[in-house]
Design goal:
The chain is of the alpha/beta class and 425 residues long. 44% of the residues lie in helices and 16% in strands. Helix 5 links the parallel strand 4 and strand 5. It is globular and about 85 Å long. The N and C termini lie far apart (84 Å).
Length: 425
């Protein structure tokens, strides 16, 4: 990776597009088979993809207890503390139903109703994510979701990682199923003999999981189609290059397509950060992943001034954004597109991943232009409430009749006209 000088070409930060259509055919086949054959298909796909034979997918109480005994109590305390902070933050987002009363007695309102059952997907594979359990479950609990079920790929021994089970226990998840991949998404969307059908599916996963979520959308709701993780840092000469490099690597270690970008107006910081990246990468346990990520989507972009950097950041719409400048809060109002904004030198992105409280499920791939972090609103639905009095009907009826007839919907008009006639007789 080298330092790139900005020349006015905004496409310099262009992403590799997340393409799920290449996987549509194979994932559609999996979905249809699970839909038709239920648990039998899940057993077949789990044997094929995870190389374990499972027929009873629900984690039993005995398995839960055995797993929890393997956990250091100190880590359980950390999970409990994190869950409490996440719950406290999301409690601020909770809405109440609203009713508007008119002078004639008419009542109009919005009812806030929690979803009945939500499915949480927790990935396995290259890393383990008990943090994903906390971030996906706690806002659902705050929203009042009645039942939360979890699916996660089994390990080679056919069990679920104890840390994931510990997070589930802390969050109060009662049903965990040992199944992953596109087949797990299909099971949640349509239901099987063991796995109940849900109203919404949340949680990250690989390209097969993302494709399955796209294909079942409409049958159920989904949170988003997540792409590779990314960070963009806006920094000036006051930033510590060690911090900048460390924060870039915190995303680069996720996978080979993760994005790590530093935008600065300081050539000195750019050069020092580049050197720090080399030093810290060499010492990193996930060195091979980091090197490929920095090669694929790493960049240090040198701009003429930070206003130019702000424009680039808003155009890129990063998942995570850090502002590390002399007066970072001066730039916060200028940022219009970002999933989460971390302000100042002591707000590194990993605090948001685990302990701070705001949700770490964030829009990726530039979708921060129109999507928001996962929140309590993602686990509710709204129903409109209308109670119209006789007087209310009289005040609106003639206008409704005229409106309906202009649209040539005469039965609409008649439904009101009948009531108007009765009131006048």
């Amino acid at each position: 990776m080298e330092i790139t000088r900005f020349t006015g070409d905004r496409s310099v930060l262009k992403r590799t597009a997340l393409t799920t259509s290449d996987f549509d055919a194979v994932v559609t086949e999996i979905i249809e088979k699970v839909k038709a054959e239920g648990d039998r298909a899940l057993t077949e796909y789990t044997a094929r993809f995870d190389h374990v034979q499972i027929e009873d997918f629900l984690v039993s109480e005995e398995e839960f207890e055995a797993g929890l005994k393997q956990i250091d109590p100190g880590f359980t305390e950390i999970l409990t503390k994190a869950a409490a902070r996440i719950e406290s933050f999301h409690a601020m987002q909770k809405r109440q139903s609203q009713i508007m009363n008119e002078p004639n007695g008419t009542m109009l309102g919005t009812l806030i109703l929690p979803l009945q059952r939500v499915g949480v997907y927790v990935p396995g594979g290259k890393a383990l994510y008990p943090s994903s359990v906390l971030m996906n479950v706690m806002p659902a609990r705050v929203a009042g979701v009645k039942e939360i079920v979890m699916v996660t790929p089994p390990q080679a021994d056919g069990m679920v990682d104890p840390r994931v089970l510990a997070a589930a226990k802390v969050c109060g998840v009662e049903k965990v199923f040992k199944v992953g991949g596109a087949q797990a998404i299909a099971a949640l969307a349509f239901g099987t003999e063991q796995i109940p059908r849900v109203d919404k599916i949340v949680g990250p996963g690989n390209i097969f999981v993302a494709t399955a979520k796209k294909l079942v959308y409409g049958q159920v709701s989904v949170d988003s189609i997540a792409g590779p993780s990314e960070i963009l840092i806006l920094a000036d000469e006051t930033a510590d290059p060690r911090y900048m490099a460390a924060d870039m690597l915190s995303q680069a270690e996720h996978d080979e397509m993760a994005g790590s970008i530093l935008i600065t107006d300081s050539e000195k910081l750019a050069q020092a950060t580049l050197e720090e990246l080399k030093i810290q990468t060499e010492a990193a346990p996930r060195k091979n992943v980091i090197e490929k990520a920095l090669e694929n989507r790493g960049m240090i972009l040198l701009v003429r001034d930070l206003n130019e950097g702000v424009d680039m950041a808003n155009a890129y719409a990063p998942e995570h954004m850090e502002i590390v400048t002399k007066d970072p809060f001066a730039y916060v109002p200028l940022i219009t597109n970002a999933g989460a904004i971390f302000v100042g030198p002591y707000s590194p992105e990993p605090l948001g991943d685990y302990m701070a409280g705001p949700n770490h499920v964030l829009p990726t791939g530039g979708s921060a232009r129109f999507f928001s972090p996962l929140n309590v609103d993602d686990f509710i639905r709204k129903s409109s409430l209308l109670y119209i009095t006789k007087q209310g009907l009289e005040e609106l009826g003639d206008d409704v009749i005229r409106f309906a007839e202009e649209e040539k919907l005469f039965a609409h008009a008649n439904a009101v006209r009948l009531r108007m006639k009765e009131d006048k007789s």
